[in-house]
Design brief:
GO molecular function: DNA-binding transcription factor activity; zinc ion binding
Low-confidence stretches: none
Number of helices: 7
Shape: globular
Number of strands: 12
Keywords: Metal-binding, Repeat, Zinc, Zinc-finger
Structural class: alpha+beta
CATH topology of one domain: Double Stranded RNA Binding Domain
CATH class of one domain: Alpha Beta
Mean pLDDT: 82
InterPro entries: Znf_C2H2_sf, Znf_C2H2_type
Strand order of the largest sheet: 1-2
Largest sheet: 2 strands, antiparallel
Distance between the termini: 66 Å
Protein name: Putative zinc finger protein 833
CATH superfamily of one domain: Classic Zinc Finger
Organism: Homo sapiens (Human)
């Protein structure tokens, strides 16, 4: 049992970081233990906090509650719409100190940084192979299983890779998820 007092907040036994909130403390400790008690009943992916599994569920339900006021595009996550809004303003707030390249999306910037560090943050539990990019890692994982995690609600076609599933959705909606700005400017 974790004890605390007014003077002594919840303190991580692994790194000493202190928390005033029990929920934040328990979630933090899971970063050290690797415990992931929240499992998706659709695909089996596990998470260390309940809010993460609620956000993840949107992949399976197709829910996109965040709508861009400028163009009407819908997003699953609040962070995605914040990053998207930079495409309207042209703002690129994330700049690499190593090479000066700037990014609209913080996630693209974090991935770009790995070019300089060589960091490989994704490791396959099945074979131990490591990957720099999440897309390569997720594609690799499907080589170990025949399970398809993403199923189209319109036609039932299933995909093991989210990007392939997302591209397929355009067959039914007419949406083209990737737009070539060079081609668009030539028209």
């Amino acid at each position: 049992m974790v004890m605390h007092s007014e003077d002594e907040p919840y303190k991580c036994k692994f790194c000493g970081k202190a928390f005033d909130n029990l929920h934040l403390y328990l979630t933090h400790e899971r970063t050290h233990t690797g415990e992931k008690p929240y499992e998706c009943n659709k695909c089996g992916k596990a998470f260390s906090c309940s809010s993460s599994i609620r956000k993840h569920a949107r992949i399976h339900t197709g829910e996109k509650p965040y709508i861009c006021k400028q163009c009407g595009k819908a997003f699953r996550y609040s962070s995605s719409i914040r990053n998207h809004e930079n495409t309207h303003t042209g703002e690129k707030p994330c700049e690499c100190k190593q090479c000066g390249k700037a990014f609209s999306y913080s996630s693209y910037f974090r991935i770009h940084e790995r070019i300089h560090t060589g960091e490989q943050v994704y490791k396959c539990k099945e074979c131990g192979k490591t990957f720099t990019y999440p897309s390569a890692f997720h594609k690799h994982k499907s080589t170990h299983t025949s399970q398809k995690l993403y199923e189209c609600k319109e036609c039932g076609k299933a995909f093991d890779c989210f990007s392939s599933f997302h591209s397929h959705e355009g067959v039914h909606t007419g949406e083209k998820p990737y737009e070539c700005r060079t081609w668009k400017s030539l028209q």
